[in-house]
Amino acid sequence: ETATNEIYTRSIVGSVRCVQETDIQQFIKDVDDGIKQIPEATNTPEEKAQLDKVMNLLRDMKEVYEVAGKQNQNKQTMIDLLRESVQMLKKHGLTIDEQIIDQIESTKSALKDINSKCSESR
């Protein structure tokens, strides 16, 4: 049982580090900035390039939201499951920095907000 607990603990800690290292907050900021720059027309190469950039950001956001932000059949997102796992690790005595839990929470709400903005932009 101890070996199983260690494997599970390492897996959860790895997932938390992945959330921290991927800098999803920067991605969300990039999407937010990008959708504010939708060109009015596509007459010039610059306008076409900007539209391509925005369309790529919208596509990427949709993919990220499908994986991380969308609720499963139990009304939980991947981020909810990660938060619950981190809280369970804390309950079992593993020291978890409160900043990590705050980051998970802020990521969840930021993903939801930017997904709504993207939907309005489409």
Average residue-wise pLDDT: 82
Based on CA inertia axes, which overall geometry fits?
Answer: elongated
- Termini Cα gap: 50 Å
How many beta-strand segments?
A: 0
Count of separate DSSP helical elements? 5
Structural class based on helices, strands and sheet pairing: mainly alpha
Strand percentage lies at under 5%
- Topology as a string of helices (H) and strands (E): HHHHH
Cα-atom Rg, whole angstroms? 18 Å
As residue ranges, the low-confidence spans are none
Largest sheet: none
- As a percent range, the share of helical residues equals over 70%
Main attributes?
122 residues, mainly alpha
Structural overview:
This protein has 122 residues and is an all-alpha fold. It contains five helices and no strands. It is elongated. 11% of the residues are buried.
